[in-house]
Write a structure and sequence with these properties.
By secondary structure, the protein is an alpha/beta fold. It is built from 17 helices and 16 strands. Helix 14 links the parallel strand 14 and strand 15. The chain is globular. The N and C termini lie close together (about 10 Å). It binds the ligand O=P(O)(O)OC[C@H]1O[C@H](O[C@H]2O[C@H](CO)[C@@H](O)[C@H](O)[C@H]2O)[C@H](O)[C@@H](O)[C@@H]1O and uridine-5'-diphosphate. Uridine-5'-diphosphate (UDP) binds next to strand 11, strand 12 and helix 14.
Amino acid sequence: MPRLVVVSNRVADPRKTAAGGLAVALGEALNATGGLWFGWSGNIVEKTDAAAQAQPQLHVQRAGDVTLATVDLTQEDHDAYYLGYSNGVLWPVFHYRLDLADFDAGYIGGYRRVNRMFAQQVLPLLRPDDLIWVHDYHLIPLAEELRSLGCRQRIGFFLHIPLPPPLIMAAIPAHEWLIRALFAYDLVGLQSQTDLNHFARYVYTEAQAEQAADGRFSAFGRELRVQAFPIGIDVDEFASLTQGREAQETLATMRDQYAKRRLLVGVDRLDYSKGLPQRLRAMRSLLQRYPGNCNSATLIQIASPSRETVGAYNDLRRQLEGLCGSINGNYGELDWMPIRYIHRTVARKRLPGLYRASRVALVTPLRDGMNLVAKEFIAAQDEADPGVLVLSRFAGAAEQLRDALLVNPYDSDGTADAIQHALHMPLEERQTRHQRLLANIREYDVHWWQRRFLESLQQ
Ligand SMILES: O=P(O)(O)OC[C@H]1O[C@H](O[C@H]2O[C@H](CO)[C@@H](O)[C@H](O)[C@H]2O)[C@H](O)[C@@H](O)[C@@H]1O
Ligand SMILES: O=c1ccn([C@@H]2O[C@H](COP(=O)(O)OP(=O)(O)O)[C@@H](O)[C@H]2O)c(=O)[nH]1
């Protein structure tokens, strides 16, 4: 296989557990080919005269056989490219939240500038037969920038977030430019069949595209292959984390503290796409309508801090704090609180213990590209006594995980009914559902995803 070059906004050392399963899987393909991973260093530097005139300095470091190459961003570029256009325009619109989009005309310039700078920086590092794999909404125009600099290598793109229906997409002032930019890639991968349908409808109606054979679309004078590749997790790696010291300690502590209670778990970035207020309202409805759960059902909700300088994320934090206070205030007892809300990131090594100690996982996003927490919860369960996954029908994962209890997160009473069902599900039904879910995430794991995408890109 040719050398793999991965380009993404964030770069992680694939040898570190904290980096997560995606980094592990990409690291596997990068390692096998002595590959290169290029992206933002995570550092923000003040704009200096040197930075204004010259290209930013490249930081190069080795991680086993993989080369990590990163660049810093100036405050101005970070604000326009990352906070502004990526997380203030693309993220909300692609998650159907037009009400939260900030179409400030100044952002797009920074987005294009950083994409151009990434292209200029990575180009001299490329070899003629490299295979380039670009990730996510931060870097949609990267291939176009690379092509304009003469790059002829094969370039693939994977979108980790949902692709919205055409009329929602059309709310972005530069929507045609964005979709045209995708046609500079050789292959575009999406998370789900639904996303693929949205793409097809957009290019037929807005770009007069024609469908050629084999998942190819022809528009803007180019042909592009678009396919769904649902991302998975490394099931064995996650299952082995379950046996680790940190996970075992967490499991023992949880079992000890909640021996007489029913534990539910939610693990999310504190993001408005994750449906957290709706989830808390469903918990309130559960306690109201099924009072047998009072003094028993306890939701541990991890809300890990994310994109805190974007206004909508601060508003959400305040809303959650208010809801938790009101539910705990109304239903809590001296020795029991229905919601344990933790606004911190929990180390990845501890999560399997928390998942395994929980009878039910609540994964109820309003919209989500995939949602890996749903898959991690399944991988961490004890097969003899597994917990139950309550999953939003609007998560990409719902296309695959049909044996979860699928819910509409906007319907708090309906979700409460599903939680009640999950809490009281007989062992045999839990085992049957879990076996099927586990078989699915094993077959379509992150290694499958990575192999299928790269095979398709090479074809
Ligand atoms: O880099 P941040 O701004 O801190 O955000 C974290 C990541 O969030 C998004 O994750 C998505 O990718 C997951 C894996 O494919 C998927 O399961 C999930 O549904 C998506 O929301 C984002 O796409 C990443 O680029 C961010 O790094
Ligand atoms: O406190 C936390 C919260 C989340 N995660 C991890 O972050 C990832 C979240 O991925 P997901 O696809 O569910 O959503 P995203 O945040 O990427 O939108 C999962 O691997 C979680 O295990 C973590 O390690 N600690």
